[in-house]
Amino acid sequence: MSIQVGSSVRTSHRSECVINQTLEVLGDQWTLLVIRDIVFVNRRHFRELLTKSLEGVASNILADRLRKLVQQGIITKSDDPTHKQKAIYSLTEKGIALVPLLLEMAAWGHEYLPESELCGLARTLKEGGPEMRAEFMNELRKAHLPASG
């Protein structure tokens, strides 16, 4: 398996531990936030992800993370049919499969970080239980996967 590290692709891992290997893909301070914005706020264009990020990601960091996510098969990049100079980012099945992880992270943070809030869609999905989460993931498939929509 190849892992994107900076501008090069590494074909080995620090260890065979599945947690380590997952962190090699997702474990920087921006990647999951980019995925969060695509999943929960439906930000699908570079400019939206850049200017509407609550955390203020820099354009070069955002470009790098989007490229990495495409290389890892978590999102795809395609031409936006409504605007010739824009690209649209879509989740793959691999990306949609991250929804339970994001929801568990949100629930853990809400429980153990006193300054955090569980709001909006994350709260609704937590309160709605497994059926609502499954329905949400199916809606993401319809919106993001070409064969499903």
UniProtKB/TrEMBL annotation:
Keywords from UniProt, A to Z, are: DNA-binding, Transcription, Transcription regulation
Q: Report the PROSITE patterns cross-referenced here.
A: HTH_HXLR
Q: Which domain of life is it from?
A: Bacteria
* Name used for this protein in its record: Helix-turn-helix transcriptional regulator
User: HTH hxlR-type domain location, by residue?
Assistant: 17-117
Is Secreted included in the keywords of this UniProt record? no
